[in-house]
Every structure is written in structure tokens, then in C-alpha cells.
Amino acid sequence: MQALKPALPVILAAIVMALVVVFDVPTSFGAHPWWSTKSVLIGAPIGIVIAVLATRLTISAMVRRITFAVAVVAAFGVAKYGGEQFAASYAEDAFAGKLWFFGWIATSAAVAAWLVTLFQTMLDKSPVKSD
Q1: 89 in any annotated domain
Q2: Which of 17, 26, 34, 123 is 20–30 Å from 130 (CA)?
Q3: Does residue 18 lie within any of the structural domains?
Q4: Cα separation of 49 and 39, whole Å?
């Protein structure tokens, strides 16, 4: 179990993000149904890599969790703003459409990074010890 412990947060976050794709969660929050799963499939691996790289930094897990949580909120705000502006322009505003699409990719990346950091913290605080 000790050999698997470093990879477990990544595996758990990947499972959660796979469930997000299966149940098409982004569409429920305002992503376009045509590309909602694509945004998760692009963003989740990016977020997992960012989270793994962030563990190599000398900042605390709490700072990483807060940073990724703020990134989730900011990226979702950009995606929501882009979607509203794109709809208000009757699909004429290409920049708003890009904000909408790339905002959802960034949201997926930030959620995946936050999940890795959260699971990592939960495992670090786990009382289970193995020899």
C-alpha cells in the first residue's frame, strides 16, 4: 500500500473527473452540450499535472488547496461570463465564445488540481499506518 500512496490522490481525482464526464456535469452548470465533455477531457489531465508539479514546491498543502479553490471560482466566473455574453450576442461574439470554451477547460483543470490536493491532504492525515 505504501508504494501506491503517492499515486492514490491522482487515481482518485481521475476517477472523480471520469464520473464528471460520464454524468456530463458541466452541461448542468452552463457548458455547451456539444463540447462539455471535451472540456473536461482536456482540462482534467492538465489540472492533474499542475497539482503533481505543485506538490514539488515548498508551499503548504493548505496554500495549494486555497489557490486551486480560487482558481476554480475564477475560471468558472470566466466561463459563465463568456457563456452569457455569447448568448446575448446571438452567437456573434467569437471572443465571448472562446472565453466560454476555454473557461470550462480552465475550470476542469482547476477542479482536478483541487481534487488531487484535497485527496493528498486526506491521505496524509489518515490514521491508518502500514508496515
Answers
A1: yes
A2: 17
A3: no
A4: 16
The three three-digit cell numbers of residue 78, written as one number: 470566466
Question: What's the number of domains the chain is made of?
Answer: 1
pTM for the whole structure: 0.92
Q: Helix 36-55 vs helix 94-124: angle between axes, to the nearest 10 degrees?
A: 50
Residue 86: inside a domain: yes
Report residue 3 CA to chain centroid gap.
25
Q: What is the pLDDT along the chain (131 residues), one digit of tens a residue?
A: 567 778 999 999 999 999 999 999 999 999 999 999 999 999 999 999 999 999 999 999 999 999 999 999 999 999 999 999 999 999 999 999 999 999 999 999 999 999 999 999 998 887 766 55
